[in-house]
Amino acid sequence: MARQLLGWQFAVVAALLGAVAVFSAVQSTEAFGDVQGRRMLSVAEDVAATAGVRAALADPLRYHQLPPFAESARSLSGAGSVRIALPDTRVLTSPDPDQVGEPMPVGESTVAAGRSWVGEVGDELVAHVPVIGDRGEIIGIVAAGVDLPHLFAGIVHSPSEALLILAAATVLGVGGSLLVARRVKRQTLGMEPAEIAGLVEHREAMLHGIREGVVGLDGQDRITLVNDQARRLLSLPERTDGVPVTELGFNDRLADVLTGRAEGADQIVLRKGRVLVMNRVPIAPAGAVVTLRDRTEIVALQNALDANRSTADTLRAQAHEFSNRLHTIAGLIELGDHDELRRYVDRVSHHQRAWQGEVAERVGDPAVAALLVAKASLAAEQGVGLRLDPDSDLGLIDEHLSADLVTVLGNLVDNALDALRGKQGWIEVCLTHRDDEVRVVVRDSGPGVAPEIAEEVFRHGFTTKAAEDGGGRGLGLAITRQTCVRRQGSVEVHNDNGAVFTARMKP
């Protein structure tokens, strides 16, 4: 890398010196033309205004008197040549004898029109001045010229200065190149360009080949890198480089984890039906890398396991309740109190039939009705009464809506049971199906939800003292909200002698 940088820097310095040399040469040529042009014009005007020259041009017999005037002017002025010609440009006197009697080249001169002119003719810078006779006619032409220098004449005339400039520029370029190469070497951890390119290729292959999602962020929380898995898990568009996290339509929970406002390992977030586990690692001096793992299938299995566990708990609660009733019946038989035994059996049967009958009368969906019957046994074991609101009216619904309704209702009832754990109380459920909306209201006699966290309870991972006091309202409520939103509905909570959760879903 050092050799490459040195070579490139030397090439840059050489190109710069060449450009400076050309620029200086052009400037020198322009300055030469300006200064020498004025000097040659002055020489030609002086010769054209000399009375002896005018007199000699007026009389052909006196043409032989012109050379002394021209040579004298050339010697005194230092001009390269001073020539005198007739109006038809035939040369009468010239430093070069071969030019005498020959036409004088005039180029684009305007001297034939009676106007002085300065310009380049061949390899000379020439000034042409007309000689005017007594009657105002042109009787001759005076041309004073000097040879044009070549482009790098200035450099040739001062080679020591040119070499000094070249040497200084070379030293500066080489020294700068070595310093730059050394600094770049430190910043690239001592790796050569080929090694860096190979590392980038390996990184790209690794990022797009792993099963985990990877998102890179800069110091302003803008996306700098997204692999294929992260793009799929987060449902990101194709073009995300440089886009701030806040402009990608993420929910608050997901945005908090990506930007680092929510700290901690294995943060769980929800994104369009997926349950993601995210970890954020800051990178100095600014930026971060976030990794994502899809836990949707694991959560689905966990929910299925929870459902089986709930069924087992329900069966256990029913077995426990049934065992207690058998013990009571056995005791009454041993006591011989057959009248009380008959009344006890009637009460138990009546209560069981009454609850099942009420559920069957007001809830027409078998899955939802079965869930309510099962949750009643769990609530009874915990010392909590589960009841239906008299206004409940739910008919038969399609199986997909039934599955979502079981999820929402089960989570809300479990949440109420958690809030009443260790306390005596009651839970009331109201299910209604009106026009194009299914409405679920679950109220409990627990401590309620603090108003300042009424929205936070639906976000998994929130941590406030009030939330901890309010009980575990985490992933279950987050899934409830996600289910309702997917059904174009909503879920909210308020307090009315306890917490009141209201969920709405479209069929």
From TrEMBL:
The subcellular location is: Cell membrane
Q: What is its main location?
A: membrane
Q: Does the keyword Transmembrane helix apply?
A: yes
Keyword line = ATP-binding, Cell membrane, Kinase, Membrane, Nucleotide-binding, Phosphoprotein, Transferase, Transmembrane, Transmembrane helix, Two-component regulatory system
* Listed InterPro entries: HATPase_C_sf, HATPase_dom, His_kinase_dom, sCache_3, Sensor-like_sf, Sig_transdc_His_kin-like_C, Sig_transdc_His_kin_SpoOB, SPOB_a
| Histidine kinase domain mapped to chain residues | 317-507
PANTHER family per the record?
Answer: SENSOR HISTIDINE KINASE DCUS, TWO-COMPONENT HISTIDINE KINASE
Any one GO MF annotation of this record: ATP binding
* Protein name in UniProt: histidine kinase
Q: Membrane topology type, per the record?
A: Multi-pass membrane protein
- The transmembrane residues are 162-181
Which catalysed reactions does the entry list for this protein?
ATP + protein L-histidine = ADP + protein N-phospho-L-histidine
- EC assignment: the record states 2.7.13.3
Q: Name one GO cellular component term.
A: plasma membrane
Write down the SUPFAM superfamilies for this protein, in alphabetical order.
ATPase domain of HSP90 chaperone/DNA topoisomerase II/histidine kinase, Sensory domain-like, Sporulation response regulatory protein Spo0B
Note whether Cell division occurs among the keywords: no
Give the first-level EC class, as a single word: transferase
Q: State a single Pfam family of this protein.
A: sCache_3_2
